[in-house]
Specification:
- By secondary structure, this protein is mostly helical.
- The chain has one domain (about 1-155): Arp2/3 complex 21 kDa subunit ARPC3.
- Helices cover about 75% and strands about 0% of the residues.
- The chain has helices at about 1-20, 35-45, 45-65, 70-90, 95-120, 125-155.
- Helix 2 runs antiparallel to helix 3, helix 4 (about 70-90) runs antiparallel to helix 5 (about 95-120) and helix 5 (about 95-120) packs across helix 6 (about 125-155).
- The chain is globular and about 45 Å long.
Length: about 160
């Protein structure tokens, strides 16, 4: 039952991301709530949990986007894996989750750009892509402390068991 509640919360984050979050645009970027949630889960519960939730969140994002299913899931998997590597090898300091969010956002964006290029979809000019990646990385890094607190709170309440079985 707790796993179902956690999945519904992730669905809610994805739906908010694709409906309301674009209205919170700053410098061309808007918050990626699914990515912040996956990075928070990875940071608090480990890479295995992060990868599992990245698959779910990525599939949900892919279902809301035009094009094939897979690019968002692949991009979130890459971000979760990189975050797990950082969490495992870097200890201490409250800034590290925010740095992981920035790095995860950049990696996520690069994987999506690579997927779009591979699929023959249109790409933004390089300068625009770099500006959007930097803006998104900064935006998600600022949101990461709040996301981390929410993930830790849900975990401590037992509302959401973030480690799938």
């Amino acid at each position: 039952m707790r796993l179902l509640v956690a999945a519904l919360l992730m669905l809610g984050a994805v739906l908010v991301q694709v409906t309301w979050a674009p209205r919170l645009e700053v410098a061309g970027a808007f918050p990626n709530l699914a990515l912040v949630a996956v990075i928070g889960i990875t940071w608090t519960s480990g890479v295995r949990a992060g990868l599992a939730w990245a698959c779910l969140a990525g599939a949900l994002l892919d279902l809301t986007a035009e094009g094939p299913i897979g690019p968002h899931a692949l991009a979130l998997l890459a971000a979760a894996y990189a975050t797990g590597f950082l969490a495992r090898n870097v200890r201490g300091g409250p800034l590290y989750p925010a740095l992981a969010a920035a790095a995860g956002t950049a990696l996520y964006s690069l994987v999506l750009l690579g997927a779009d290029d591979t699929l023959g979809l249109p790409l933004p000019p390089l300068t625009v892509a770099i500006q959007l990646i930097l803006s998104a990385a900064a935006y998600n890094a600022v949101l990461m402390p709040v996301g981390l607190v929410l993930v830790q709170r849900l975990k401590s309440l037992g509302v959401a068991r973030v480690q799938p079985t």
